[in-house]
Structures are given as structure tokens and as C-alpha cells.
Design goal:
The complex is a heterodimer of chains A (117) and B (117). Chain A has strands at residues 4-7, 10-13, 19-25, 30-38, 44-51, 57-58, 67-73, 76-81, 90-98, 106-108, 112-116. Chain A is mostly beta strands and 117 residues long. In chain A, the strands form two sheets. In chain A, strands 2, 4, 5, 6, 9, 10 and 11 form a seven-stranded mixed β-sheet that branches. Chain A has a four-stranded antiparallel β-sheet with strand order 1-3-8-7, with no helix packed on it. Chain A starts with a strand and ends with a strand. Chain B has 117 residues and is an all-beta fold. Chain B contains no helices and twelve strands. Chain B has strands at residues 4-5, 10-14, 19-21, 24-25, 32-39, 46-52, 60-61, 64-69, 74-79, 88-96, 105-107, 111-116. In chain B, strand 8 (64-69) and strand 9 (74-79) form a beta hairpin. Chain B is globular and about 45 Å long. Classes of the chains: A mainly beta (117), B mainly beta (117). Chains A and B meet through strand 5, strand 9 and strand 10 of A and strand 5 and strand 6 of B.
């Protein structure tokens, strides 16, 4: 149980285009989903937290107009990187917390490797 | 001050031997959770084990056990009978119930474990 999928697993795009990444909880309802960014050989950096049906909460320094997050249902959250630039190239990984889980364990997706040319 | 400290950037262990990965944490929150995740080279973050601050016994999950020493604020991960597939980055993380992190996970910098045949 507690499987999270992420799509696509990797994407290459041209500078100036937008890229959408999907995060789905496959076998549980996710009250909260998280989006992280990870640079090579570093730990995860939280970008934003999203609750179903409400606006995302962004961490300090993360541009909300550049990284659009939508959490339309209890099983789906999307991250759209708008007008991507080479400095946005990174590994993006989502996680989800299950409804009713008192431990608040976050289950992670497999990640999306974004390369902006 | 760092909330989660992993002092071992890299560790080597012989196959079939046990290994301990260190993690110390800093919080004044009476209620918190401690997590260990494994990140192989593929990038996926795999949840391994959870320890709640009020749990009386050390958590165990198969070959993984958490050596929880509350007074010392340490939560070391013990992997018994190491396998080649255990080679990966290991992250310790904490979730505070009432602290400034707003219930989000705080990650350590990770320990890279290499299992030698």
C-alpha cells in the first residue's frame, strides 16, 4: 500500500516553455501533498505544501507564479513549471500523506528529472 | 542550529554485516516523529521506518531497526545483514507537531552507504 506515482519520470524542454508534472496517490486518499526539489548530492528542499481544494503554501524564496501547484482531488496534485529556464533543471519529487494516518508519514513518488535546454 | 544532523557523509559495510547510521535531532516540541528514508540511485525516496516520540519501544521493520535514545536525542538506524541492494543514500527526518516547521519534514543531509561484496 501507500504508492505514489509521478509522471513524467523525465522531461527535456526548451527554455521558455512550461512543463506539468503530475503526482498521484494510487491506493490512498492524500489530504496533503508536498513538492520538493533536489539538487545533485544534496538533501530535499521543500517547495510547497498543498491541501486538496485549497491554495498551496509556498516556502520562502519559492516563486508561486513560476511554480504553479494545483491539488484538484484527494489523489492528484500537479506542479507546473512556467517559462522554464536552465536554472530550473533539477529533480522534482512529490510526496503525500494519507488521510487518517496519525504518524503523518510521507510517501514519495519516484521523482521527475527536468532538463531545460 | 541544524534540526537534524547526520555526521557520516559516507559509510562502507561488508555484505552480511550490520551497520549503524547516525542521526541526532534538536527539538523542544514534546510531540514529534522520526523517519528514515532510503534513496537509491534511481531517485525514489523509500520510507523505511518511523518512531514516535512517545513510543516506548524501538521501532523495527524487518532488517531495519531504530535505536531511539530520547535523552540523547538520537535516532540511529541499524541495518542488519547488509545486502548489496542496501547501497544508497539514507536520510533521517523529523516532523514536529507544534514547532515552526508546521508539521513538515525536516531532513538531514544524508549518509551514503556502500555495501561491499
Amino acid at each position: 500500500g501507500a504508492v505514489v506515482s509521478q509522471h513524467p519520470s523525465w522531461v527535456i524542454c526548451k527554455s521558455g516553455t512550461s512543463v506539468k508534472i503530475e503526482c498521484r496517490s494510487l491506493d490512498f486518499q492524500a489530504t496533503t501533498m508536498f513538492w520538493y526539489r533536489q539538487f545533485p548530492k544534496q538533501s530535499l528542499m521543500l517547495m510547497a505544501t498543498s491541501n486538496e481544494g485549497s491554495k498551496a503554501t509556498y516556502e520562502q524564496g519559492v516563486e508561486k507564479d513560476k511554480f504553479l501547484i494545483n491539488h484538484a482531488s484527494l489523489t492528484l496534485s500537479t506542479l507546473t513549471v512556467t517559462s522554464a529556464h536552465p536554472e530550473d533543471s533539477s529533480f522534482y519529487i512529490c510526496s503525500a500523506k494519507a488521510r487518517g494516518d496519525s504518524t503523518d508519514t510521507q510517501y514519495f513518488g519516484p521523482g521527475t528529472r527536468l532538463t531545460v535546454l | 542550529a541544524q534540526k537534524i544532523t547526520q555526521t557520516q557523509p559516507g559509510m562502507f559495510v561488508q555484505e552480511k554485516e550490520a551497520v549503524t547510521l547516525d542521526c541526532t535531532y534538536d527539538t523542544s516540541d514534546p510531540s514529534y516523529g522520526l523517519f528514515w528514508y532510503k534513496q537509491p540511485s534511481s531517485g525514489e525516496m523509500i520510507f523505511l521506518i518511523y518512531q514516535g516520540s512517545y513510543d516506548q519501544q524501538n521501532a523495527t521493520e524487518g532488517r531495519y531497526s531504530l535505536n531511539f535514545q530520547k535523552a540523547r536525542k538520537s535516532a540511529n538506524l541499524v541495518i542488519s545483514a547488509s545486502q548489496l541492494g542496501d547501497s544508497a543514500m539514507y536520510f533521517c527526518a523529523m516532523r514536529e507537531r507544534y514547532g515552526g516547521s508546521q508539521g513538515n519534514l525536516i531532513f538531514g543531509k544524508g549518509t551514503k552507504l556502500s555495501v561491499k561484496p
